[in-house]
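Work through what follows:
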Amino acid sequence: MQRRHRLSRSRDFDAVYRQGRSTSTRFLVLYWFERDDEPVEPRLGLAVPKAAGNAVARNRIKRQLREVWRAHLDRVPAGRDYVLIAKPGLPEAVAANGFDWLSARVDEVLTKAAA
């Protein structure tokens, strides 16, 4: 995922958490915030808590989520910042069900956010 598509500063994450809206599914929570500036590409921040596993498992799930997000980028509304939070149990579920299952879960949370 390119740098311009990422949230990296703490204050950007805070703005999404405090002023944004959220929706959740069994394994993911999605926060989003409409930016006031001109409509530009959506930006994503990832949060994977320590309860989701050790550092190897957390980094693996972050890589997988970035790849799924990149594949869904054409369906994501522009001009928004997003924070995608993985809930505990997601790494094990992805290992058991596969990458396509993870893609379906991200699609599910994006659909709920659009409604």
In short: The domain at 3-114 is CATH 3.30.230.10 (Ribosomal Protein S5; domain 2). The chain has a mean pLDDT of 90. The CA atoms of residues 64 and 99 lie 8 Å apart. The longest strand covers residues 28-34.
